[in-house]
Task: structure prediction
Amino acid sequence: KNEVEQSPQNLTAQEGEFITINCSYSVGISALHWLQQHPGGGIVSLFMLSSGKKKHGRLIATINIQEKHSSLHITASHPRDSAVYICAVRLGPIQGAQKLVFGQGTRLTINP
Amino acid sequence: DAGITQSPRHKVTETGTPVTLRCHQTENHRYMYWYRQDPGHGLRLIHYSYGVKDTDKGEVSDGYSVSRSKTEDFLLTLESATSSQTSVYFCAIRATSGPPDEQFFGPGTRLTVL
Result:
């Protein structure tokens, strides 16, 4: 069993829909990252969370440390949001080298 | 992009040949990482570095070695490439100079071992 599980693996929606991607993990973590990988392959960091909720534009990320669960929400989705969204958990102390363990990603397709 | 470049961006090689991938950063970050990305596995850590000449293994380090002789360069070497090492390789740095504390990724190198 993977230490980091994402669901769904694939998601297709219509433009404007509210999107939720889930991430569950089984280990103690110091933080959780959400990343976006565009069709061209580049990986961009969206959020780093250790508690609560963060919002950037139409993206919202939440984390529940007790339940070992995080969600990424996209409001008013747009075709340019089509990408693979990757959850990664950070193991080890805040100081020092970060080791990230990654989920397999959720492929999101937004149709116009 | 935190000034990260990778070279080459694409490489095709034959089984048994040595291959070196280079990661170069321009912002003097201490921590650097090599990952590989494969379908069905996601990103997995190969090796990482926490300073010049300071490196350690990740979860999939067999068949790989690394070197970091100066802050800006982190080299990944496949001493004798195998077909199982066909993958996309990403270099990353950890930016600790200010919030947010996050990793920035290079553009990736697509390696094919025939």
